[in-house]
Amino acid sequence: MSQQPGKSGLIFNEPMLWEKSREGRCAISLPKSDVDRVDLDPELTGDAPELPQLSELDVVRHYTRLSQWNFGVDSGMYPLGSCTMKYNPKTNEVQASRQGFASAHPFSGDEFSQGALALMYNLEQYLATITGFHAVTLQPAAGAHGELAGMLMIHAYHAKSGKQRSKIIIPDTAHGTNPASATLCGYESINVKSGEKGILDPETVAAVMDEDTAGIMVTNPNTLGLFESNIRQIADIVHAKGGLVYGDGANMNAIMGVVKPGEIGIDVLHLNLHKTFSTPHGGGGPGSGPVAVVKALEPFLPVPRVVKDLNSYKFVTDCPDTIGRLHTFYGHFGVMIKAYAYILSMGAKGLKDVSTLAVLNANYIKESLKGTLNLPYDLPCMHECVFNDEFQKKDHITTMDMAKRLLDYGFHPPTVYFPLVVEGAFMVEPTETESKEDIDQFINAVKAIVKEAGDDPEKLKKAPLLTKVTRLDEVTAARKPCLRG
Amino acid sequence: MKEINDLNLPDDVKYTKDHEWAKLSEDIVTIGINDYAQDQLGEIVFVELPEVGDTFSEGDEFGSVESVKAVSEMYIPISGEIVEINESLEDAPELVNESCYDDGWIIKVKPDDVSELDNLMNKAAYLDMLKG
To answer: CB under 8 Å, gap of 24 or more: what pairs does B118-125 form?
Structure first.
């Protein structure tokens, strides 16, 4: 397998469904009605919605062709830093499609939903064990929603203690959604800079932490892919002034089975089931953002909560201090099934191996490419590594040019221009599911592209060249958007 | 991107550490982002402006500029009231790239205390800061 995966091939054009529509064309023939026709009250009727008229084959080809224009983790390596685009085993889909789950109805009531409730209860217990926390809610719809849930609980905690606070500390290596979640709770973000080694210094936190500060939001490992090794000290500083520590667990894929955030001073943590626990995302979602809390925050968890009562399960809502309901029904149940299947398939050792291999793969890429691309923080990384385009500046080649060119080689581009603390960031997260052979191909592709940057820079500026749609005019698209087909 | 020596940094404006510029003329301070900022951001596609009549204190965020690469906040270098905004940026944000000190100005402020401008840098000091 010395060949790169990217190759040109026949790609079909495909018009919009409206353009394929022909009057009277139809995909189904309904049986003759066996009941008498009854006219509805005219107030309840109107013109039928305007829909394209198509055969089944028209529709199948349409979506098959569109899917062939796409790039997914099932077609190639997808090292999109910070997103954990790991392979999603097909058994997860099989379990979620089982009739008992797929046909479950949220109005069936506790009595007829015992299997679904047992799954939710057990999943909460597993996640509590994995993270080292006391209790978990599965309700939030995705990561940022989990952040909001966590921050609402911190807000409720301070309100209950009798004195609300006004500020929250957020380092520059936290996820970009953190300040938004804090702002929605009415907190002012106090931004602090990470230290020279890319992690937060305790002194920096001590300098701004006071009794009007609700706490700190820490992403650990942070967006530079580095472990915040001062977290215990930082937590002690925040706790000493009565604050709480919010942990953004979106990068849990690096430490699962190795570090329990609940044991290193963090009070609230959200998880992304769609990242760490292998459920589809990036267009294949929806996500799920469970939140784990220490005992002191349990009363504030969203309702309904699922509880075990002897050998049966039920929902409870009579929790006086709850922050309330965050989602219709109980959250994204289908995602929970897939994550549960993943945890059971992997087992405790398997989950630890996930993190170990994710970190090994990222370090392998970091070491293999550090002479090729500039590496601003040359430290052992966790599950992702951040390069930039400093070496290519002399050829006027940017991170964007190299990222686009990777598509021609058959790889999804990495995350670019994030995190903001690295100018021209090129952020690679291989995940544990890529083999050494695939990772070597990726490394070779990056080396080949860097060579092209010196030999044939114009080619890179036009890339991608093999995809159905080549370099887009992003500036015109943003300045003069065409919002209708 | 431009080398530091190629930057257009006029002598008759003052500079902030966040790469805005400010210029006093007949009691009104005109503010924009400088050549370094527009060059770093790349092609600007949207400028979020405050409203006339809004008041800000020195250091407050008063708007943002969005390029295809990033969104960047702008911080006001002087306390005061917004008396005019550059409405032509709504349809033509590229003016900030093409003419950041003239047609691409962003806001005009009636300052509370003109002496706050003394805290800003002149060209030489700003260049020293860029060179680190």
So the answer is: B119/B58, B119/B77, B120/B14, B120/B15, B120/B16, B120/B22, B120/B77, B121/B14, B121/B15, B121/B16, B121/B17, B122/B11, B122/B14, B122/B15, B123/B9, B123/B10, B123/B11, B123/B15, B125/B15
pTM: 0.86
What ipTM does the predicted assembly reach? 0.72
CATH 3.40.190.10 fits A91-345, yes or no: no
Residues of chain B neighbouring A475 (CB-CB closer than 8 A): 43, 45, 68
For residue B45, give the nearest of A393, A400, A478 by CB distance.
A478
Name the one residue in this structure whose structure tokens are 């009605």. A33
Q: Least CA distance to B89: which residue of chain A? A: A479
Q: Is residue B132 in some structural domain?
A: no
Concatenate the DSSP letters of all residues of A66-85 into one string: HHHT---TTTS---BTTT--
CB atoms B43 and A475 under 8 Å: yes
- CB–CB contact A478 B94 (8 Å): no
CB contacts, 8 Å: A393 with chain B: 1
Q: Where are the domains of chain A?
A: 91-345, 348-474
> How many CA atoms lie less than 13 Å away from A294 in the CB half-sphere?
16
Closest in B1, B68, B70 to A478, CB measured: B68
Tell which CATH architecture fits domain A348-474.
Alpha-Beta Complex (3.90)
Is the Cα torsion angle A54, A57, A63, A65 positive or negative in sign? Answer: negative
Per-residue pLDDT of chain B (132 residues; tens, 9 = 90+): 788 889 999 999 999 999 999 999 999 999 999 999 999 898 999 999 999 999 999 999 999 999 987 889 999 999 999 999 999 999 999 999 999 999 999 999 999 999 999 999 999 999 999 988
Print the domain residue range for B60. Answer: 11-113+122-127
